[in-house]
UniProtKB/TrEMBL annotation, chain A:
Cofactor names: [4Fe-4S] cluster
Polar residues bias locations: 917-928
Family: Belongs to the prokaryotic molybdopterin-containing oxidoreductase family.
Gene Ontology cellular-component terms listed: cell envelope
Name of the featured protein: Anaerobic selenocysteine-containing dehydrogenase
Coiled coil regions, renumbered to chain: none
Tagged with keyword Iron: yes
One Pfam family in the UniProt entry: Molybdopterin
TrEMBL record, chain B:
PROSITE patterns the UniProt entry points to: 4FE4S_FER_1, 4FE4S_FER_2
Origin organism lineage: Bacteria, Pseudomonadati, Pseudomonadota, Alphaproteobacteria, Rhodobacterales
Protein's UniProt name: Fe-S-cluster-containing dehydrogenase component
InterPro entries in alphabetical order: 4Fe4S_Fe-S-bd, 4Fe4S_Fe_S_CS, ET_IronSulfur_Cluster-Binding
Keyword Metal-binding listed: yes
Keywords: 4Fe-4S, Iron, Iron-sulfur, Metal-binding
Record-linked Pfam families: Fer4_11 (PF13247), Fer4_2 (PF12797)
Domain 4Fe-4S ferredoxin-type: 12-42, 72-104, 105-134
The species this protein was found in: Jannaschia pohangensis
Top-level taxonomic group: Bacteria
GO molecular function: 4 iron, 4 sulfur cluster binding; metal ion binding
Amino acid sequence: MNQPKLNLSPKVSDEVRKTTCYMCACRCGIDVHMKGGKVAYIEGNRDHPVNRGVLCAKGSAGIMQHNAPSRLRAPLKRVGERGEGKFEEISWDEAYSIAEGWLRPIRETDPSKLAFFTGRDQSQSFTSWWAQAFGTPNYAAHGGFCSVNMAAGGIYTMGGAFWEFGQPDWDRTKLFILFGVAEDHDSNPIKMGIGKIKKNGAKVVGVNPIRSGYNAVADDWFGITPGTDGLLILSLVHCLMKAGKIDLEYLRDFTDAPVLIDADPNSATHGLALLDDDGHKLVWDRTQKRARCFDAEDVNPDLAGVWEVGGIRHRTVFQHMIDKYLSADYAPDTVAERTGIPAGRIRGLAAEIARVAFDEAIEIEQEWTDFRGRTHKTMTGRPVSMHAMRGISAHANGFQTCRALHMLQILIGSVETPGGFRFKPPYPKPATAHPKPHCKVTPGAPLDGPHLGFVHGPADLALRDDGTPARIDKAFTWENPMSAHGMMHMVISNAHAGDPYRIDTLFMYMANMAWNSSMNTSGTMKMLSDKDDNGDYVIPHIIYSDAYSSEMVAYADLILPDTTYLERHDCISLLDRPICEAEAAADAIRWPVVDPDRNVKGFQSALIDLGARLGLPGFVKDDGSPKFKDYADYIVRHERRPGVGPLMGYRGENGDQTGRGAPNPTQMQAYIDNGGYAIAHIPDDAQFYKPWNKAYQDWAVEIGLFDKASPYLFTLWCEPLRRFQLAAEGHGPRQPPDHLRERIKATMDPLPIWWDAAAAHGGDAGEFTVTALTQRPMAMYHSWGTQNAWLRQIHGRNPMYVPTELWEKHGFDEGSWARITSPHGEITVPVAHMPALNRNTIWTWNAIGKRKGAWALHDNAPEAKEGFLLNHLIHELLPPKQDGMRWSNSDPITGQAAWFDLKVKIEKVAAPADGTSRPNTGRQSSPVGTGPDKLAWEVK
Amino acid sequence: MTALPSHTDKKLGLVIDLDTCVGCHACVTACKGWNTQNYGAPLSDQDPYGKPSGTFLNRIHSFQSQPETGLARTTHFPKSCLHCDDAPCVTVCPTGASYKRVEDGIVLVNEDACMGCGLCAWACPYGAREMDQAAGVMKKCTLCVDRIYNENLPEEDREPACVRTCPAGARHFGDLGDPTSAVSLLVADRGGVDLMPEQGTRPVNQYLPPRPRDTIADVMTGDEDILAPFLAPVAEDPKGFLGWLDRALEKL
């Protein structure tokens, strides 16, 4: 044996710098190993509350993102036509001057002529504050085309939703049911959770048309027909209620199930809750036989019944639920065919939920006191947990489906109880504790309040005095009244159409709207570059900020180049979308572990500069000089309320206060020293039952989540929906247009319902019968991954996956191509066989296809050749109805983009001679050239 | 020809859980990130921004299967060098560059002695070796030999990069020659298997098979009382349901 002698302890790095990942939305902690001042290696931070040391494929490949040849290098001014990608580099001073030249006149005359929309923005509490100071009503981030149904459905129902709002009790759950998930919502915590559940011998169930990823390891798979999750869930509700497998004590004490609802059809408050003089909801007391306030200490609410109070008949919420959900409409045999799940399997799943919830209930020896002042010796849990994301929310029936899912969780008493689903601070926080939308525009002055929020009835809509939409995206209008995250996907088409009005400047950040983030991609590209009769662009000015040479860059007039995530400051703030866990409040920072080697600037710092140049309130001192040096300075010194700022940790003069405290000039360094985050643990007696737990409410006030204890009931009955129905029935001063009345009455049911949202996509002759979807790969985030030399070797291709029945019916073979047609358009693409797939669904990976010239890729890149977008088949409007009206392809309640309602026709065609998918979207010039021919990455 | 050691002191290797691997490729890029930076030549990529082809020491393959009865399945299958006891890649090596370490059984390539003939890759039945096109030397999983003993790393980090990063906890590292080690006990408990045992390579790495899938039993109408007592209706009609509810509330 002649073994060479190895150095088994080579030096790993000079230094480890700890910051927060941004390779997707999951916000894991990372250890960045530095060698010679350069980034050498990235791994997970073991202490970090989100990822505990692990890291996904994207995170470990972050180094290739940081070094991507597609990084923009300097501010750019367009010199060619929009879409061509021809630019010249300019100075920051010139860039700011151009932007100021467009924005200052707008602000002085009509601030609504600015539409400022940010995409996958993790600084929304800051960007919205900027937009508010500017005075435009036209601000939102990307929630409207992502998962607003999940967020809003959860907040309106129980004061929080999945992912950023809460998580399963991974350690105690015994049955975990996953409905149609987008993998990055969230990424590592779900993988860690599934690993933990499997180790504990618990069961994972996947409800998803596609058996890949998490569904591949699910112990049981329900390959549901897309868009029918709500129907399946209501059938489970039917089975559980019928069998009495519901938690009556929980429903009675913590939900509005016993609340009395006006049941007189002639009453102006028909369908609304009976209130006392102080506005508290009333319940029927079984002991005292009278209506009483829900929070009285000795109240004993009844759950069912019809009672006359004040001469008007009232029925409890639960009585309405009995009437609705015990109906045979929701029996498994009725829903089996539509959902694609046999009745026996639906009952099997219901029986499993019932068995685990009630036969394997958990009891924790922990005393706690509820909001009525009653002390409980133990905490009881139903160890069934659930999670869902875009798969159920990106349908036109998604809001009601998300509500149905939460209703199911609540019925079995598995929300905020051991083994079930738990909120993460600052949640629980009910819709009533959130702001309402604001839209009052005053030239030269800030908007009258925050743009986005939760409406509670017609009075809260964002309408002008003449009843027309106040916002360019038509959020908070009769077409989609509860659009809590705005509707970014409607901005470009509305701005192009001048409907509801013309704008001057479209300002966007980090959203590839000329490509994978828009429906109707080819049409959107035309709208962005369309000119009027005078030869001027229909959308006069477009400013865009991105770190990379994306497709959207080519369509902007002015580019503000952003940094990579390793070169910037950020705060992952409790004012926004923090990194909390169920056991603790937590927030985090990013900081420049390396300085940019290009003439680029973190977008938020650029906004600070621009805000100061424009003299926006909050951005300048009394003498008009800039108030903040940069974004880092804002993070440390800004106070949203006295003592409450973007970061909760290390506040106060000595840096020893958490949550509340004066700004601390050394706060950023304290975060860096602590590994990039701060954490505040929730006391033991406050860990569960948070909406009703006195100890939690007190703790939340102490650290500044809110200013006074605010316990509330879960709202199975969504009164805001009912208020819109009442308006549609003719009640109240603010009335919907007549053509929307029937739709509002039908869809805005105060109890969760289901309807066939895909029916509108089937074509006049019913020729579009196959449902078509996209999924996001685990190792790729939107378009970003394509520039990543390592990740694109994992997911560089996206065939259309076809299930066995369709594969055989159309005679496909390996290497076949297909033409896929929808009511809106057609694409010609390669296909691949996939047996583990719903029998009538086809799908492909999202955002793999690229436009030639983008992302510094060479023209032979598979992404720009056979790669394609499904987006070309999806229109932002539904096909015309008989009256010629075209409704938005979105949820009629929230405006959530209904990506997954798509129906198509599939035909086998000859492979194109050039091996390139259709449509051909042309080529853009690259302002950064193309990447190198060879790579052998090593930092010495 | 290169000789294998007659005995190794330890049998360090991986145990990979096919029940839990979600196919996320975290191990693939963690491996690439560590190893392009450490042992031997960097892991190169050809045409990285065109039609790319690069060197990876660890890859995930995904399979679809349709059992005769029941639902179709997807299996994610991570694959890297299995550090075989009877490693044919070592015995075939004409220069002695491929070798198996006596102290821990790790199979390595001494890149200084490798002439890039590629015989070892042909000999490996698992396709676990990749020729680096830029360096012209054979690359393979080193089991992160420069991590697992590395005194510059905290003790808890002295494990292969793929194991440290795996979010689902589907990868385990340890001494499979010690029957009392955590990995050996895991293999015994879960019925771990050799990959392609008929090849006679006696791989050290072990795979844990997926648990049975789709076991929730169907419940047909009328079966509720017997097969699914939890679904037995409390009453036949809404009126009866209200009666049940009243009695149940009274008992609370």
